[in-house]
Design goal:
With about 350 residues, this protein is mainly β. Helix content is about 0%, strand content about 50%.
Length: about 350
């Protein structure tokens, strides 16, 4: 396993050094390769470019920033009871949504662009529409203290980790906002959650000062995969290069751990090609598979440009062809991974 640590980086063309100071949340724009880190002590969002340069990006937060989320051409940040939106290109402020929350902490978004933020102190989850600055209390009581949260398109739910002893992992239905317990762990004070390309979950525990990996269906015992951390917070898994970013609030570092490649199971071979072309008129993706594939058994996983997992709706399969519905996808760039009979293939397309 290749492990790299980046801390206290210096931007050579700035007049002063940029350092991590209370790093809380990490996200990535996988198109540019830029990483974004919420720096709670300095009340800034920092940007780390692909060459390792660390820059001031957005300043002026009052009670944060805590959780941050890249959505298309914008980045959103939790700041007390507010969610603030900025242009990803230059940090220009775009919107401020003020809720009645006590302390917004973790944040995620679904395939339709809705934001969901956890209220750590109020034990609630807020649903926010950044298009018109409206919000509602989506979950009025989580019982356990909610922290990191992640959209799980395959199950049409949110997955939320919690604070405290024997920390629980919660599932929140996007259909009716009901809360279920997906797993009760032996870990304490879980801050962040992320997911890799085969659906396995990664959680950051302050109690263990480590990262644990959990199977996609939440069965089995969490396996420790990285240790020696210091209050690991809101993590992010970059599916493009299988790198997990871990902000350490306790010692002001951010660790980048490469687990790749794990985009598909080890027995799959990159030996097939799938021709795909979206049809804007019907909002469908047409697929033509290799002759030796059993289309009835073909599976597909899809990711947006920011590496967020989306469960596609496979329509009819006929001969070497199949169709995938694109109705629920926002316009933008998408990456699909197909697998069948020990082979895999990749396709990239643009939803208009």
């Amino acid at each position: 396993m290749k492990k790299l640590v980046f801390a206290l980086l210096i931007a050579p063309y700035l007049s002063f050094a940029q350092t991590y100071s209370g790093p809380e949340s990490v996200d990535c724009d996988t198109i540019t390769g830029n990483w974004y880190i919420s720096n709670t002590s300095s009340k800034k969002i920092l940007r780390r470019t692909p060459d390792g340069t660390l820059q001031n990006f957005i300043s002026g937060f009052t009670n944060g920033p805590y959780g941050i989320e890249v959505v298309g051409d914008r980045i959103y940040a939790c700041d007390g009871n507010k969610v603030k939106g900025f242009l990803l290109s230059d940090g220009t402020p775009q919107t401020t949504i003020t809720t009645n929350a006590t302390f917004l902490n973790g944040i995620t978004h679904d395939a339709n662009g809705w934001l969901y933020a956890t209220d750590f102190s109020g034990k609630k989850v807020y649903k926010i529409n950044p298009a018109n600055n409206t919000w509602n209390v989506f979950v009025p009581q989580t019982t356990s203290t909610p922290n990191g949260i992640l959209y799980d398109g395959s199950q049409n739910r949110l997955v939320c980790v919690t604070w405290g002893a024997s920390a629980k992992i919660l599932g929140i239905s996007l259909v009716d906002s009901t809360v279920s317990i997906l797993k009760t762990t032996s870990l304490s004070n879980i801050d962040g959650i992320a997911r890799d390309g085969v659906g396995r979950w990664y959680v950051a525990s302050w109690g263990a000062n480590a990262i644990h990996r959990i199977e996609s269906d939440f069965t089995g015992t969490p396996q420790q995969v990285y240790s020696g951390l210091s209050n690991p917070a809101d993590i992010y898994y970059n599916l493009k290069n299988d790198t997990l970013a871990i902000p350490n609030a306790g010692n002001n570092t951010v660790v980048f751990v490469n687990f790749g490649p794990v985009s598909h199971t080890n027995d799959l071979q990159e030996s097939a090609e799938v021709t795909s072309y979206p049809n804007p008129a019907t909002n469908e993706l047409w697929l033509e598979f290799p002759p030796d594939w059993n289309v009835q058994l073909a599976k597909c996983r899809m990711f947006d440009a920011n590496g967020k997992s989306i469960e596609p709706e496979m329509l009819d399969r006929n001969g070497r062809s199949a169709r995938i519905a694109l109705n629920n996808l926002m316009p933008g760039l998408y990456h699909a991974i197909f697998s069948c009979d020990g082979q895999s293939a990749h396709s990239t397309f643009i939803k208009q």
